[in-house]
Amino acid sequence: MAAPDAPILNVIGTPPASDSVPPHRSHDPTTNLKRSDPFQFGSRYLLPEDDPFEFNAWDHVEPSAEDHAHFESQVALQRAAPVSDFDRGRFNGDPAKWWNKFYTNNTSNFFKDRKWLQQEFPILKEVTRKGAGKKTLLEIGAGAGNTCFPILRDNENKDLAIYACDFSPKAINLIRASPEYDANYVRAEVWDVASPDLPPGLGRDTVDVVLMVFIFSALHPTQWRQAVRNIWKMLKPGGEVCFRDYGRGDLAQVRMKKGRWMEENFYIRGDGTRVYFFDKEELSSIWSGEMFGEATVHDQQDNEVKSNDLSASAASEEVNENVTHELPNTVTGDRHIVSNNGTRACFTIESLGVDRRLLINRQRQLKMYRCWLQGRFRKPATSEPSPLG
Predict the structure, then answer these.
(1) Counting CB atoms within 10 angstroms of each CB, which of 99, 176, 262, 376 has the fewest?
(2) Pairing relationship of beta strands 316-319 and 160-166 according to DSSP bridges
(3) Is the predicted pLDDT of residue 211 greater than 60, yes or no?
């Protein structure tokens, strides 16, 4: 979202005339965008007449043809020097082990609190407002609490229940040990979203909102179907998934070294944790169920599913995985799977957008492209039983 006092862009994408310099163009520390609270991005567009090295960041910038070619050449080098078969088994065999090591070395001070969440996902404001009634929020991949605790600080709903789940016991211990941990509102549990079981304390149709921020990318592609199935089971009809993760071509992917490539767009980081880089169409296919439309996405006794038409949508964005803003154009749509008995088995794509940001190293005259994907996926509001099993 743009800062509250940022100028509205006219139809050709340039700011209207003004006597004062708008915050996103100001170098004055008393009036520039850094003074906004919460810190907001999304209004600094790189125009043809601009010097890209004037500011440290620009919004909605597509990589050039030259940059695309550089990305493809880097991926080719990565593909030519993949992770060894031994290491592939080591990293895929026990991923929780590597996240435990990560949270042993990086406690709650490693990540910044995600204060931007309510800006980008309005449903979080709805479930935390005073008088909202009994609401259950499930955060998957809760880490050290940098998401659940900011939500708890802003909460005015005495009937809110937050389930903070992570498959790293070390991460859950960090949450439980925090002075902000309030067992009246928060329950932290060790749980793997790709396991066959649901989290302790949660059953079918019990959750209003699922929050997934940079966690789906940690799963192996063979785990996606089970993860989506589990989330479908827990969500109430009409429940919503709030999603944000890495996009294909992100700087982190470009910089991957030799010996890190495991599969297309799937890598091992230097600390042993896994990461996948998605594209928009792929995510839409996963969450709509189309990816699983030619095979059963449920138990053998259930009917096979067939895919219907798609229309995807653009949404909103963030920087450094901490601050967000609104994309200039949004298209809404409806993409889902329908089983033979007419029951919707997968999610409606409420919105799905690509967030691109150009970061600048002015001293070294370097351009660095970040890319994230953000979406909202809704379980259809129906009382029919799910064929997902």
Answers:
(1) 176
(2) unpaired
(3) yes
